Amino acid sequence: MELKHFSAEDVSLPPVGISACRLSLAPNAPQRLEEMLQQGIRLFLSFPSHDDGAAEALLGSATAEDAVYALSTLGLLEGGLYQRALERERSGNPYPELVRLSEGVSHCLHPEFLQEQLAAAEQRLGRRGVAGILLQRPELFLQWALQRGIPLQEVRRELFLRLERAFAALEAWVHSGRIRFYGVLSESFHLPATDPLFLSAAELLELARSVAGAQHHFRLLALPLNLFEHSAATEPNHGQRTVLEYALSAGLQVLAYRPLNAVVRGRRVRLSEPPLSSSSLVSLEHIRAQLRDFVHTEAELVHALVSQLQEPYQRELLRESLTLGLFLEEHWQQRASYEDWEELRTGYLLERFRTVESSVRMLNMAENSLWQHYKERFRQALADIDRYYAARAWERARRLRELLHEAVGRELPPVPFARLAVGLVRATAGVAAVALASSAPEHGAELLAAGQLSLPTLYREHWQRLKAAIEVLERVV
Fold it and tell me: What is the pTM of this model?
């Protein structure tokens, strides 16, 4: 295999990208990738810890010549990587400096591990090679060590020694043409400077200079930025500057991720409007009446099924599992947002339903009219609750549009809210590129369309006004 050798001076990021781990697991993944490439998406982030390298193998199989700009994100070990680390440990040859964060998750930034992962990525990507490497979340080592009572000063000293060894190896790979540049992906760049987990871009840049002088190749910061996670644009943690302001002044590129899927106090919030038409609004009273009927139907179904079972323990198991109506009646209004409800529906509720459906088939009652009626009641209850939460999400998006208009100081284009949310991140001073985790080609098209919006450049003062978005979230979820 002939590897592609890169020019170390060629480090400009394509403006939009896709986190490819979801793409690699999607149906018809090669076709979806080709569609994205045809649209003009060139930047792809891979996370071998998430998919055991499947995304890189997919990118390596792309037919378009020289169209893939791949960034490999290395540091976490999960899934197959975690299991291989355990096997090495059992054979007496563990990865140096590996720390186990929790059951099933480890972290390592040692050059031996990075070299192994780079070689694997090169093999999977073929002649395209790896454009750059992102060291993944170094602050996890800080967190791990602090939880064990190690003094902060000692922990930070050890982290930077580990980063120094990693930077030296990365510089060597740049000079040999294996990569163009390197950087760090962190959830801590935006924290207050007093936070023990804060990671300073200035200190990382100084470390790179101490390793390789003024000609170093530390060029990229990757961090979250969206309407609800705005600290990268508002928190002055580099003296009087935010991390975005510092990066812009220091010549560092910033890749903003999570532009649409915010994490707020442990909750997931999607910055887009769910499917909804004006005719699909539904009242609380209607849903409550639907659920009362559903609970009644469920009681009848339980009675009919239990009468078919001989063993007492089987009857008890069935009674315990067939409580979807009771669960919905008690808990459906306790969801914090449309996203919380969607997670409950697609996960717990549908899984429970499939379990019940299997039991019904085993009892040869799949064609029973009572079961068919129950299925229809369940489907209708979920659809009605869906519409209830979707209406609230639309109201949230409407109020956020008003806030955006006030913050930016000009009329905003009447485009889908997701495109607007991405466009605002792209228009922020200091942001070089935006990446979205998706497997859908239409999302790639939305990313590109967001860059075509006529928006002013956003600075810290604009994002300070956008802090009020959290109040909209708390009032209308």
Answer: 0.84
